[in-house]
């Protein structure tokens, strides 16, 4: 187990087992050599069996050429050599084990995360159909809930009638405009003739060919025709404005019809994405209000891991580094990679963030939520669900690009 209390990966176990087997074999070899040494020490010399007691006694005397313990000293270098070999193997294994322990960062404070799509009502209404239950798998666009559409259907028909009336108003305004333009053209023609008569009879009056009363009559007629032209021009402008107003009424009626149709479509609630239904609270006959949550759809095609690493563990962690994810629910290991870290620690995102301005500060190692994405195809059967507990092992590759 590592310093966090977690089980090390299988590769560490295999290295330790192989080292243990090598040490065991060397120890058995040392025991065998010791047994041979003891056998040689207790074996009597062959020449002593043919001599007399004198030779037997002489054999018991110590030999000045071979001091006591010389046979044990003869084998001692082999023992030291084996001890040195064992020590070297242990040192190499310790270095390798140390390097392995520094090659990854591990945490069991991790969980699977995903999007939760709340489904709520957009209009007032009474529920007439509920097509799903909790744990149901739904596809995008599949029907979930139906509200009573009768009121909204009537609103659509009323808005359609108002639109038709507004269209007729535009047509009437267009006809009034055309009539005003025709009147203006007639008035312009009449005024043109009247102004010519004023000029002509004015010249005759100045030559005293006609009396003044006749000239005054034509002059009055010219002024009246000019005023008629001005009046007809104003009428044309007013008729044109009426067309614009009628068209605005048509646009408002069209908008009302579109809103009525939209409200009618809201009576049929469908799934915004494929996923699993959960947190269902809606029932048939229930009266719902706009914004009231009815159920939740959990998409399973976009899953990621949120792992809380201590700030001291992020020193050598880099984006894109491979991560091994062990999920408790499935008992399987998944492959992913580090995507990034949040903008602040989890403590600052809490409901009551700490306030250290008073000076009563106690240094506590903070944790940051590292976002880890799964490689495609890791969860083809959609067994991973948001909220599941997991363990994350980030393998440090030493990539130069930093998380920060």
Q: Please count the beta strands (DSSP E, at least 2 residues each).
A: 14
Oligomeric form of this entry?
single chain
Low-confidence stretches: 1-9, 46-75, 399-404
Structural class: alpha+beta
Succession of helices and strands: HHHEEEEEHHEEEEEEEEE
Considering DSSP H and I runs of 4 or more, what fraction of the residues is helical?
40-55%
Summed over residues and divided by their number, the pLDDT gives a mean of: 81
Q: Which shape, going by the Cα principal axes?
A: elongated
Radius of gyration: 51 Å
Q: State the end-to-end CA separation.
A: 31 Å
**Beta-strand content:** 15-25%
* Strands in their spatial order, largest beta sheet: 1-10-13-12-11-14
**Biggest pleated sheet:** 6 strands, antiparallel, barrel
Number of helices: 5
Structure, described:
- It contains five helices and 14 strands.
- It has helices at residues 10-42, 53-60, 70-101, 150-206, 212-265, and strands spanning 104-114, 117-120, 125-130, 137-138, 143-147, 268-270, 275-278, 287-288, 293-298, 303-310, 322-327, 332-340, 367-374, 389-395.
- The protein has a six-stranded antiparallel beta barrel. The chain has a four-stranded antiparallel beta sheet with strand order 2-9-7-4, with no helix packed on it.
- Helix 1 (10-42) runs antiparallel to helix 3 (70-101) and helix 4 (150-206) packs antiparallel against helix 5.
- It is elongated, with a radius of gyration of 51 Å.
- It starts with 9 loop residues before the first helix and ends in a 9-residue tail after the last strand.
- The model is unreliable at 1-9, 46-75 and 399-404 (pLDDT under 50).
């Amino acid at each position: 187990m590592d310093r966090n209390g977690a089980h090390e990966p299988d590769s560490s176990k295999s290295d330790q087992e192989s080292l243990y087997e090598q040490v065991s074999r060397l120890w058995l070899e040392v025991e065998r050599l010791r047994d041979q040494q003891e056998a040689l020490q207790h074996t009597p010399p062959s020449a002593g069996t043919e001599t007399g007691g004198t030779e037997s006694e002489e054999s018991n005397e110590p030999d000045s050429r071979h001091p006591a313990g010389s046979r044990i000293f003869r084998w001692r270098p082999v023992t030291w050599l084996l001890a040195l070999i064992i020590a070297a193997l242990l040192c190499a294994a310790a270095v390798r084990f140390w390097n392995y322990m520094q090659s990854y960062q591990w945490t069991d404070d991790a969980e699977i995360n995903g999007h939760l799509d709340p489904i709520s009502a957009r209009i007032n209404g009474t529920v007439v159909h509920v097509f799903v239950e909790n744990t149901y798998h739904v596809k995008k666009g599949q029907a979930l809930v139906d509200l009573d559409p009768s009121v909204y259907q009537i609103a659509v028909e009323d808005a359609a009638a108002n639109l038709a009336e507004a269209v007729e108003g535009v047509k009437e305004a267009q006809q009034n405009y055309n009539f005003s333009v025709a009147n203006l053209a007639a008035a312009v023609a009449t005024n043109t003739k009247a102004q010519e008569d004023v000029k002509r009879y004015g010249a005759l009056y100045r030559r005293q060919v006609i009396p003044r009363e006749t000239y005054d009559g034509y002059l009055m007629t010219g002024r009246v025709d000019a005023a008629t032209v001005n009046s007809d021009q104003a009428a044309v402008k007013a008729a044109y404005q009426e067309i614009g107003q009628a068209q605005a009424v048509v646009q408002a009626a069209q908008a009302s019809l579109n809103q009525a149709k939209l409200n009618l479509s809201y009576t049929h609630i469908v799934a915004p994405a494929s996923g699993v239904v959960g947190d269902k609270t809606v029932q048939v006959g229930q009266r719902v209000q706009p914004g009231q949550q009815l159920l939740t759809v959990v998409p399973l095609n976009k899953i990621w891991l949120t792992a809380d690493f201590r700030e001291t563990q992020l020193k050598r962690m880099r984006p894109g580094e491979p991560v091994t994810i062990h999920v408790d629910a499935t008992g399987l290991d998944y492959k992913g990679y580090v995507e990034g870290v949040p903008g602040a620690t989890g403590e600052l995102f809490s409901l009551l963030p700490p306030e250290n301005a008073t000076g009563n500060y106690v240094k506590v190692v903070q944790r940051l939520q590292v976002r880890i994405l799964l490689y495609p195809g890791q969860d083809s059967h959609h067994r991973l669900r948001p909220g599941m507990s997991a363990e994350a092992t980030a393998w440090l590759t030493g990539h130069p690009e930093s998380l920060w």
